[in-house]
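name: query_chain
kind: protein
chains: 1
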Amino acid sequence: MKKTYAYIISLLVLISTGDIIAQKPAAVEPHEGNIMAPKPAAAEPPDTVVIPLAIRAGIDIAGPVIYLTDKNNLTSEGYLSVDLNEKRSLFFGGGYSNYKYSQYNYNYHTNGVFFRAGVDFNLLKPLTSMGKYWAGVGLHYGISVFTYEIPELSSENYWGTTTTSVSSQSHWGHFAELTPGFRAELLGNLSLGWTVSLRKMIYSGGSKDTRPIYIPGYGLSAKAFSAGINYFLVWNFRYKKINVVIKKEPPEEPDEDVTPQTNSGSGNNQKMEP
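structure:
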């Protein structure tokens, strides 16, 4: 009987000890005078990156190269842009065009100036661009002011060949422009970039019978859409620096479908003999 009581008392002691070990210590409530009270954790400051803003002046180097191969087409243009922030910048562009075209029965000549204005959007993330790289798209509105003339126009009929001309006329036209492109900083404040111009005609100038063939800054007026490409050499003049907050990506959550593997060793299948 004594042995039975001893077994029961020993079992109660073991159970009580296990409960005490399993219990977690209670959290200490902070109060005045409690030196050991834990301090609240300070919020982590957001990550930021410094982006320089710049005023940029660029000149197109494709126009003079084209003129070396085609003396009938001279176009020179440039632009000025001002960064508003790490994503947007104001764009102002302009240029001059002198275009000649000859066919078997007429000669055509036009020259004039054109202007563009709009907004450029940088689609790169701040950590990638760092104020040195730009890959995005621009939305511009263009106006062209020009004169054209046809010095010689010939036509054949029953009585022979008739020669006439169209004196110089002044017109203006306007168009919308979408310009995707890329720009990268090479050395110091010098950058090189390219843009593809996708233009939509809004008004070509003149009447139906006297509509110009070519519009400076746009291209052939007979096309409702025109396209072109420019290569720009750009000088950057930094005027300000801003801090841009970088959003942290949330941590990846573990896959809930993964189930723990169980060991099916031979030792687990052994039966205990009494």
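note: The beta strands are 47-60, 73-83, 88-102, 106-122, 133-157, 160-187, 190-203, 214-215, 219-220, 225-246.
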